[in-house]
Amino acid sequence: MKTTIILALTALLFSCTAKSERSTNPPVLSTALKDSLNQGNPNPYYSRTDTTKLHVSNAEWKKILPPDVFEVARHKDTERAFTGKYWDFTGVGTYYCAVCGNKLFTSDLKYASECGWPSFFEVDRKNAVRYLRDRSYGMERVEVLCGRCDSHLGHLFDDGPPPTGKRYCMNSNVLEFAPKIGLSSGGQ
Questions:
Q1: Catalytic residue check, 97
Q2: Is the pLDDT of residue 7 over 70?
Q3: In the CATH hierarchy, which fold is given to the domain comprising 2-45+56-180?
Q4: Is there a contact between 156 and 117 (Cβ–Cβ < 8 Å)?
């Protein structure tokens, strides 16, 4: 619990140095983490180092997560295009699952797809995510889930750039960004 608070405060401290060429006020802490810290009720499942598979009920997640994060993460909702905090964000650092802290992507794997959601061409590590076939809404897609907590992150498409040709089209509110430590605000 103390580790979660220390990580959150560290991320908040370094958020002052994160700047984007497109976004002028980059968010650093997820809504879920900020809300749980403000309520004095940190998410006990959140860890940026633990990769142990979580088995938490939706009822438990509902107690911990803000409604917008819960709807995307647990009910597979989608935020509106061009509205998420990271769709045009260009800060240098790492993207984590906002629900459990699992490391998902780094900024060098992100690209401007202009689709309205943050897009990446590859995950940070093989087991960071898992995939499910999604045939909802009469479409054939591949759903991307967090490999640790099974939260819905977005979808995978085959229209991305080289070298993978993949586009991980993610929802901003289930991502949390941590800036790379040691960068000056002018270098981003």
A1: no
A2: no
A3: 2.170.150
A4: no
